[in-house]
Automatic annotation (TrEMBL):
<feature type="binding site">
    <location>
        <begin position="229"/>
        <end position="233"/>
    </location>
    <ligand>
        <name>ATP</name>
    </ligand>
</feature>
<dbReference type="GO" id="GO:0006083">
    <property type="term" value="P:acetate metabolic process"/>
</dbReference>
<keyword id="KW-0067">ATP-binding</keyword>
<feature type="active site" description="Proton donor/acceptor">
    <location>
        <position position="171"/>
    </location>
</feature>
<feature type="binding site">
    <location>
        <begin position="303"/>
        <end position="305"/>
    </location>
    <ligand>
        <name>ATP</name>
    </ligand>
</feature>
<keyword id="KW-0418">Kinase</keyword>
<dbReference type="GO" id="GO:0005524">
    <property type="term" value="F:ATP binding"/>
</dbReference>
<feature type="site" description="Transition state stabilizer">
    <location>
        <position position="203"/>
    </location>
</feature>
<comment type="function">
    <text>Catalyzes the formation of acetyl phosphate from acetate and ATP. Can also catalyze the reverse reaction.</text>
</comment>
<dbReference type="InterPro" id="IPR043129">
    <property type="entry name" value="ATPase_NBD"/>
</dbReference>
<keyword id="KW-0808">Transferase</keyword>
<dbReference type="InterPro" id="IPR004372">
    <property type="entry name" value="Ac/propionate_kinase"/>
</dbReference>
<dbReference type="Pfam" id="PF00871">
    <property type="entry name" value="Acetate_kinase"/>
</dbReference>
<comment type="subunit">
    <text>Homodimer.</text>
</comment>
<keyword id="KW-0460">Magnesium</keyword>
<feature type="binding site">
    <location>
        <position position="114"/>
    </location>
    <ligand>
        <name>substrate</name>
    </ligand>
</feature>
<keyword id="KW-0963">Cytoplasm</keyword>
């Protein structure tokens, strides 16, 4: 086992408190995002909007695992095999004991679990009991990559942290009440209903949080908004007066925008074609569409910074890929403006949305017909704050709002207590 401690300047998405102790009397929530071979966690003070500690257990079940624990400007990295999720979480709790903050004194009032697929069952956070666990289990066929991993996280956390309530916060909840016209595919009704095929969306916690921040920042609750969550996964949502009316991800997170490794929208007949003509199997096509396409499949790299480097080096394919990416974004924003009958605010969030000023400028330039104008100075300013980046002459407010899913999960969790 190797252990290294370093001063860290890397900021998790939630602001890290320089004073790592929670304020006197303040409540905290331990937020857990359990993946198939990883556990991400954050100890959040939801009222103050602060992350008091954060970390990551990775490569669970592999030969060489790692745990990174950040607290009070320090980052501790441990390298050792981690047999399973239970061992990983027990190690994390040991690190809280050893390195702080001391959970027994942090007034942890809940554990908030991120759950990707809540199907038609959850339109908000749910206090986890055996019945909720059973429902998340029933939803595994709709979230085969995520829900089994969340269930593992929930199981071990309920064992190790038995004295506090556990709350599930669903990525799909914000889109549970989409109008039927947006949620239902024009697929044979009987088949669609028998197999629960409809648009569930994803990234809902982020879209809800970001659109709420926009309303607060602009001081208006009646806004017609488009939120572009552009990370490795990417999705757009249309939100009217705080309610989602459409979203780009569908039955699964494959639909919609061009992503790091996913195609986004593609004619489903491409599947028939690849099966018949190329002899590909379903799993092969699944991998092709979900992992080996998007920017990675178009340029060889899924990192936008690398795509821009290649564009600057004169690579025509990289420029073409960016054009495809921007085209899809512009198409969705235009479609959602039509769906909502107008557009008051357009917001960029997540890794690309928050950091890529050049992409924002290209998208907004193309939306000039809606009266959208970027302020080049505000757009290129480096800032971690939520801010308006449109010019004073813009008919559409354009914003950059850092997403903060952990804070949103923590805030939702405490609403149930
Ligand atoms: P995830 O979907 O994995 O949570 P993130 O929201 O963290 O993704 O976004 C990750 C992506 O953000 C990276 O793949 C990279 O393309 C992009 N990114 C990060 N920083 C920048 C930057 N300065 N400019 C352009 N893209 C960036």
């Amino acid at each position: 086992m190797t252990t290294t401690a370093t001063q860290t300047s890397t900021q998790p998405s939630t602001r890290t408190a320089s004073d790592p102790a929670p304020g006197a009397g303040s409540r905290t929530v331990l937020v857990i995002n359990s993946g198939s071979s990883s556990i991400k966690y954050q100890l959040v003070d939801p009222e103050a909007g602060l992350a008091l500690a954060s970390g990551l257990v990775e490569r669970i079940g592999e030969e060489e695992g790692a745990i990174i624990h950040r607290h009070g400007g320090q980052e501790l990295r441990i390298q050792a095999p981690i047999a399973d999720h239970g061992t990983g979480l027990a190690e994390v709790l040991r690190l809280f004991d050893e390195q702080g903050p001391d959970l027994s004194r942090a007034n942890v009032v809940a554990v908030g679990h991120r759950v990707v697929q809540g199907g038609r069952f959850f339109s908000g956070p749910a206090l986890i009991d055996d019945e909720v666990v059973d429902t998340i289990t029933e939803l595994v066929p709709l979230g085969p990559l995520h829900n089994p991993a969340h269930l593992k996280g929930i199981e071990v956390a309920r064992e190790l942290l038995a004295s506090v309530p556990h709350v599930a916060v669903f990525d799909t909840a914000f889109f549970q009440d989409l109008p039927e016209a947006a949620a239902r595919y024009a697929l044979n009704r009987e088949v669609a209903d028998t197999y629960s095929i409809r648009r569930y969306g994803a990234h809902g916690t982020s879209h809800q949080y970001v659109s709420g921040e926009v309303s607060a920042l602009l001081g208006r609750q009646d806004l017609k908004q488009v939120v572009l969550h552009l990370g490795n996964g990417a999705s757009a949502s249309a939100v009217v007066a705080g309610r989602a009316v459409d979203t780009s991800m569908g039955l699964t997170p494959l639909e919609g925008l061009v992503m790091g490794g996913r195609t986004g929208d593609i004619d489903p007949a491409a599947v028939f074609h690849l099966a018949r003509v190329a002899g590909m199997g379903i799993d092969e096509i699944d991998h092709l569409f979900n992992r080996a396409s998007g920017m990675k499949g178009l340029t060889g790299d899924n990192d936008m910074r690398e795509v821009w480097r290649r564009i600057d080096a004169g690579q025509a394919q990289a420029r073409e890929a960016m054009d495809i990416y921007v085209h899809r974004l512009v198409k969705y924003v235009g479609a959602y403006a039509a769906v909502m009958g107008g557009l008051d605010a357009l917001t960029f969030t997540a890794g690309i949305g928050e950091n890529d000023a050049r992409l924002r400028a290209e998208v907004v330039e193309r939306l000039g017909f809606l009266g959208a104008r970027i302020d080049p100075g505000a757009n290129t300013e480096r800032s971690g704050r939520a801010r308006v980046v449109s010019g004073s002459d813009s008919a559409v407010a354009v914003l950059v709002v850092p997403t903060n899913e952990e804070l949103a999960i923590a805030r939702q969790a405490v609403t149930l207590l």
